[in-house]
Design brief:
The protein has 17 helices and no strands. With 422 residues, it is mostly helical. The chain has one domain: Amino acid/polyamine transporter I, CATH 1.20.1740.10. The longest helix is centred in the last third of the chain and has 46 residues. It is globular and about 55 Å long. The two termini are 20 Å apart.
């Protein structure tokens, strides 16, 4: 889409280090903090804190790799653009499909997460939770049809809200921690720690989002690295603190794992604190789903225009000029995901591993591209190699969900010679 390139080259350079750090934090901390700490603790018990510690370290080279790639090769295409530059259009399109086929799963997970935070307070049954989840899914998708996007000020408010809620949860939990909650330390064995680490990857995606912002940096060569290092440290500390107090207060287990943050705040502030977190959770999930639906619909449109996806995905609204084909794909996929969860064929903890696997696979390809594209930078190449090795080592611990990306690759390969546009 040439319009995207023209837009990128005409953007004003207005972002300095403080704004860059805030934008990095906002791109990484999102719905994962509402869901993953409790789920990871349920998988590995108190030993999951070790997985958080390891991931907090590994996230630094990942962030540096994506930050450098974004500053040196700014584009709205994200990792797909890096893959195209390094390996050709075919691999870039494949990364696009990996992203596109993860959004419907992720959208359903987001919606159920937000609905459950409200459901815990109102003592809702399953039917009520999933009606609310369908509402959370459909509203942002419908708004996208009209070309409505969240304004920059609203997104900044979401970031401030997330950080405020996290700090509130940490402070509220301090008086209620108990060393007894750390025994037994590894009730499910040490292998479960590696499994928890694979689940934690969901919380650390988003560094590639800087691609959309790097052309607006006043000094990208200097501030890109400084920005990712500062933000990676802040993100790691916030996640680690929430994970620690989730365990220290015993705010997990069963249905509680999906609303652990709310339970932590309610320890000190009661139901009022729960309402604050619940409203924030719905707003966060809505904002993230709005952004991902918008991105996925445009990737679907681009793939269709390039002949790498069916023509239906490239249908545009005649009046609003929005990619309704892609939006319909996302909507149908999200509703099917909700039905899958509602039927209890699969649990939320199991399902989240599928889109998580595609994100790990996407980062593997991005790190491979980084090894080639950052060959002239010692720091960049070293960070890309470390990230590549760590994500490759992490991949086998995804379990059966690790088969999802290869299945996508096989399907795309089988249809590679098919003329989707016909």
């Amino acid at each position: 889409m040439p319009q995207l390139h023209e837009l990128t080259t005409n953007l004003r350079k207005v972002l300095r280090l403080p704004q860059i750090i805030a934008l990095y934090i906002g791109s990484v901390i999102g719905s994962g903090i509402l869901l993953i700490p409790g789920m990871a603790a349920e998988v590995a018990g108190p030993a999951s804190i070790l997985a958080w510690f390891v991931m907090s370290i590994l996230v630094i080279p990942m962030a540096v790799t994506m930050g450098l790639l974004a500053s040196k090769h700014p584009s709205s295409g994200g990792v797909a653009h890096f893959a195209k530059l390094a390996f050709g259009a075919q691999y870039g399109n494949l990364v696009g499909w990996l992203f596109l086929l993860s959004v419907p799963f992720g959208g359903g997970i987001l919606a159920v997460t937000g609905a459950r935070y409200i459901g815990v307070l109102l003592d809702w049954g399953q039917n009520q939770v999933y009606v609310a989840a369908a509402f959370i899914v459909l509203v942002p998708i419908i708004l996208n049809v009209f070309g409505l996007k969240l304004a920059g000020k609203v997104q900044t408010a979401v970031i401030a809200l997330i950080i405020s809620i996290l700090l509130l949860a940490i402070c509220a939990a301090i008086p209620y921690q108990s060393p007894d909650n750390f025994t037994p330390f590894a009730p499910n064995g040490w292998f479960s720690v590696a499994q928890a680490a694979g689940l934690l990857f969901w919380c650390f995606i988003g560094w590639e989002a800087v691609t959309h912002l790097s052309s607006e940096f006043v000094d990208p060569e200097r501030d890109a690295i400084r920005g990712v290092l500062w933000s990676a440290g802040i993100v790691a500390l916030l996640y680690f603190a929430i994970a620690y107090f989730t365990i220290a207060t015993g705010s997990y287990g069963g249905a509680a794992s999906a609303a652990s943050l709310s339970l932590m705040v309610q320890l000190s502030l009661g139901q009022a604190g729960g309402w604050v977190v619940a409203i924030a959770a719905v707003f966060i999930c809505f904002a993230v789903l709005n952004a991902y639906a918008s991105a996925a619909s445009r990737i679907a449109y681009t793939l269709s225009v390039e002949g790498a996806a069916p023509r239906l995905l490239g249908v545009m609204h005649q009046r609003y000029h929005t990619p309704i084909g892609g939006l319909m794909f996302v909507a149908v996929g999200c509703i099917l995901t909700l039905l899958l969860l509602y039927s209890e064929v699969v649990t939320l903890a199991q399902l989240i591993q599928w889109p998580n696997a595609t994100y790990v696979a996407t980062y593997i390809v991005g790190c491979m591209a980084g090894v080639r594209l950052l060959a002239g930078s010692k720091l960049g190449k070293a960070a890309a190699i470390v990230s590549l090795v760590s994500t490759l080592c992490l991949y086998p611990f995804l379990g059966w969900s690790a088969l999802y990306p290869p299945v996508i690759v096989i399907i795309i390969y089988l249809f590679r010679r098919r003329n989707w546009s016909a």
